[in-house]
Amino acid sequence: MFKELKNLLLLSDFGVVATEKILCIFKKNLNKKNISDTKIAIVYFKTLLLKMLTNSQKFEYCDFKKIPFVILIVGVNGVGKTTTATKLAYFYKQLGHSVLLAAGDTFRSAAIDQLVELGLMYNIPVFSKPIGSDSASVIFDAVNLAMQQKKNILIIDTAGRLHNKDHLIQELQKINRVIKKCLPTAPQEIFLVLDAGIGQNSIQQARIFSSCIKITGSIVTKLDGTAKGGIIFSIVNELMIPVRYIGVGEKITDFKLFDQKKFIDSFFDIGL
User: Which helix (H) or strand (E) element contains residue 70?
Assistant: First the structure.
């Protein structure tokens, strides 16, 4: 059983450190509770995983009474930030909130066009400026516009930046300062978008981003493929960054609140 559990965790991208830690705690608790039946042990193992995840998965819920509620979307290139920003905006819109999207990625014309097009498709207003505009300036104006129009939520898409490029990380810090000039309490949320398919590299991304800016939560995309998403467990436990939402497909509605119990249960579909 221990061998199968170890293989399960490693193949599910939990990582070596997290896997060894989990199994060590599991073995100690089995001995204390004198559990010898495999089926009971597996049930307890799932309970232990859920408890470990829940203890680390703590955050303050969004208070949309303080408007505009500003959400900054960050991450490396190619993780799906622009589509994630749109899905998040649509998610909040369906809950009855007035939402404004801001095209903060001014380096890539395709990013601006994509966000504007998606905004038109789902009837979500998008604030943007021409390609090459100063990103901080765009975001400054977007925050002011959201305040003027009394929008509940402002979601800001930012340029993809490699986590190992210092000047790009510094620019992100500048954007954060600019937002605070307009609205000292903002951004209330900074969501790091992570691609479930890249496995252990996500931890390094999360480490670098969280070292330079206060990440309040993560959104894990592409969980509809072969990725099992065990990396979520490592990030939550090591960095205490809660997972807030997950992307499970290409459709606008393939976006869900992270359910810890369903997440844990999904690892045992193989019938251990």
Answer: strand 69-74
Q: Is the dihedral of CA 234, 190, 97, 135 positive or negative?
A: negative
Instruction: Measure the CA–CA gap between 198 and 76, rounded to whole angstroms.
Output: 12
On whether the CB atoms of residues 80 and 111 are closer than 8 A, the answer is no
Count CB atoms within 10 A of the CB of residue 163. Answer: 20
Q: In what order do the strands lie in the sheet with 255-257?
A: 126-127, 99-103, 153-157, 69-74, 189-195, 217-221, 243-247, 255-257
What DSSP letter does each residue of 9-38 carry, written as one string?
HHHTT--HHHHHHHHHHHHHHHHHHT---H
237 in Cβ contact with 260 (< 8 Å): no
Question: Hey, what CATH class is 2-56 in?
Answer: mainly alpha
The pLDDT of residue 269: 62
pLDDT digits (tens, 9 = 90+) for 34-49: 888 988 999 999 999 9
What's the pLDDT band for 57 if we cut at 50, 70, 90?
Answer: low
Count of C-beta atoms within a 10 Å radius of residue 69: 24
**Rounded-to-integer distance, Cα 25 and Cα 255, Å:** 33
Superfamily in which the 69-259 domain is placed by CATH: P-loop containing nucleotide triphosphate hydrolases (3.40.50.300)
Q: What does DSSP assign to residue 233?
A: H
Q: Please, are residues 247 and 213 in contact by the beta-carbon 8 Å criterion?
A: no
Instruction: Report the C-alpha gap between 193 and 212 in whole angstroms.
Output: 16
Sequence-separated (6 or more) residues with CB below 8 Å from residue 47: none
> Based on the number of CB atoms within 10 Å of its own CB, is 3 exposed (0-12), middle (13-18) or buried (19 or more)?
exposed
